Description:
Elements: H1 2-15, E1 27-29, H2 36-46, H3 49-60, E2 65-71, E3 75-78, E4 84-97, E5 102-111, E6 114-121, E7 124-135, E8 138-152, E9 155-167, H4 181-190, H5 194-205, E10 208-219, E11 222-232, H6 235-242, H7 255-259, H8 263-288
Antiparallel strand pairs: 1-9, 2-4, 3-4, 4-7, 5-6, 6-9, 7-8, 8-11, 9-10
Helix pairs in contact: 1-2, 1-4
Amino acid sequence: MAKLFALVTAVVVGVLSGLSTAANDSCALIDFTTKESEFTDLNTAIKSTKSVKLLGSVLGSFDPLILNNVTLPDFKYKLSFGRSQTVTPRIDSINITGLKTLTPKHVRVTSANSVEIATYSTGQVAVDVALTFTVPKKSDFFLSGSLKFVVAKPTLSVNVEANIFTCASGESDSSCTDLTVADLLTKITEATTKRQYSSIMKELMMKFKDATVKSVVLDFKSISEYDLDFDSSSFVFRTFFRGASLFKLVPDFSVEAINKRGWEYDYCITAADYYGTPVLNFLIDSMLEPKFGATCLSET
């Protein structure tokens, strides 16, 4: 997923040359809203057979994708009589397979520094997650859980806010050169070694000042497996999560119920969208952000 984000946004960097408020005398921030025709060319390029094959090859080397110790946002757990309890969830490990089946659909401008990156798959994506839930200041309220599911023909739209530098008007070509879509695709497709590919991505990532996923929208054609299980030494905590309580946090779902696309489906989609955002931001922070250079200048 990180490589998908990197590859598509890399093409965004390569195609755009619009300027906004200057960061310094040599660089300026890209304003996406002024480049409608360039985004038309971009969407044509990413749908080409060459780009699709390239993306599948790149993602295949990171499939399965394994992450550990992902912090998730706290949530309020409603109790009886108007009471609530804060619960802290954490992903101990997550294993995602099937990413190589993802194909870019479009890149759409949503603001001066934001784009929507949409992808789809004609295959399956499987997710296996180990979770931990804790209650602040209550060490005995500790619950471990596991979630496994397989979705067919998923679609994923991610709204990304990215501040990216490009060459300022009049900057010397010897110190600052912007890539075109054609140049970028040629460089990537001609790269025959991991070192060559890494060099291209390094050059592109140097142009990023920062990037943040603002929202995620997930959908799928059907689900063929859904297994959610919890265990805790605390009877109260365990009961509130999956027991007979009227206030239990996680209702029991079946594949059949989710595929009917009723409230069970809505519940799963809402949860995936809500927690997908911090997972993708973890990817950016851990795998991409260390490579951001916040400059448009070439290394000397």
